[in-house]
């Protein structure tokens, strides 16, 4: 059985068949999913969806760096209230994205700093995003890493030095279907052995990042959590390990980081 630590179930791409998507995932052996909150409204939606399947779905509450321009004092109040819900198991998605710059960098830094402080206050782990912003990301997170109860660098696609820095801070590493990309995923495959098994987590980031090597490929080109076992198989093959070990270890890691009860 597998746990998907990153599913964007509130995406409009799932509006027509959201419950069917969950049913297909359960049938495929993905028996718990953590729904990513990327804005105030998105976090509310993630919590509402999680409450439909108690014990099988959890949620995060945060503001993606793309939406950091909307962050203000009221945002923090609303996120703090969301974090009181038992279904909310992490603060995030949060971090920095200097690749797209959909929000001004100063706004991203302010939002990220405040959400790290919120994680410290609420004693929840962080669900982290970093793209082309490693130095600024570390300037904010590293001094506070000892006060944070934990976190995962979600959808890791960085360098060896970046990986080592995150592991040194005690962070977990989230691996997606990027590992299945024969063009862009080769460097990530080479880095897998550097990740201690007790820091490895798996995720789909659905509906995004569909594994390129799926056969047959879905006509919609939409990723779904039912493809998580395929990602786990690719990881197991690249690390020369049994799939059962990857499934069991990542499940244990997920329970430990997010304090899941089931």
Identify low-pLDDT runs. none
Taken from the alpha-carbon principal axes, the silhouette is globular
Share in helix: 25-40%
CATH level 1 name: Alpha Beta
Instruction: Please indicate the percent range of residues in DSSP E strands (runs of 2 or more).
Output: 15-25%
pLDDT averaged over residues: 96
The third-level CATH topology is: TIM Barrel
**Over all CA atoms, what is the radius of gyration?**
17 Å
Number of helices: 9
Q: How far apart lie the N and C ends?
A: 12 Å
Second CATH tier, the architecture:
Alpha-Beta Barrel
What is the string of helix and strand elements? EHEHEHEHEHEHEHEHH
**CATH homologous superfamily heading:** Metal-dependent hydrolases
Q: What structural category do the secondary elements indicate?
A: alpha/beta
Q: Order the strands across the largest sheet as they lie in space.
A: 1-2-3-4-5-6-7-8
**Major sheet, described briefly?**
8 strands, parallel
């Amino acid at each position: 059985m597998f746990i998907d630590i990153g599913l964007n179930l509130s995406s409009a791409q799932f509006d027509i068949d959201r419950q069917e998507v969950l049913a297909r995932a359960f049938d495929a052996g993905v028996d718990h999913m953590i729904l990513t909150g990327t804005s105030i409204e998105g976090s509310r939606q993630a919590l509402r969806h999680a409450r439909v399947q108690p014990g099988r779905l959890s949620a995060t509450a945060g503001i993606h760096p793309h939406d950091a321009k909307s962050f203000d004092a009221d945002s923090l109040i609303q996120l703090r209230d969301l974090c009181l819900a038992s279904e909310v198991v992490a603060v995030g998605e949060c971090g920095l994205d200097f690749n797209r710059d959909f929000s001004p960098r100063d706004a991203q830094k302010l939002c990220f700093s405040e959400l790290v402080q919120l994680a410290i206050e609420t004693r929840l782990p962080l669900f982290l995003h970093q793209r082309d912003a490693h130095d600024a990301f570390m300037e904010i997170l590293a001094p506070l890493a000892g006060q944070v109860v934990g976190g995962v660098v979600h959808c890791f696609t960085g360098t060896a030095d970046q990986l080592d820095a995150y592991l040194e801070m005690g962070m977990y590493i989230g691996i997606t279907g990027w590992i299945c990309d024969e063009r862009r995923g080769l460097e990530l495959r080479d880095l897998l052995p550097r990740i201690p098994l007790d820091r490895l987590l798996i995720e789909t980031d659905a509906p995004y990042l569909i594994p390129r090597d799926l056969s047959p490929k879905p006509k919609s080109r939409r990723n779904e959590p039912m493809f998580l076992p395929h990602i786990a198989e690719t990881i197991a093959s690249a690390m020369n390990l049994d799939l059962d070990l990857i499934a069991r270890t990542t499940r244990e890691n997920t329970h430990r980081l997010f304090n899941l009860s089931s």
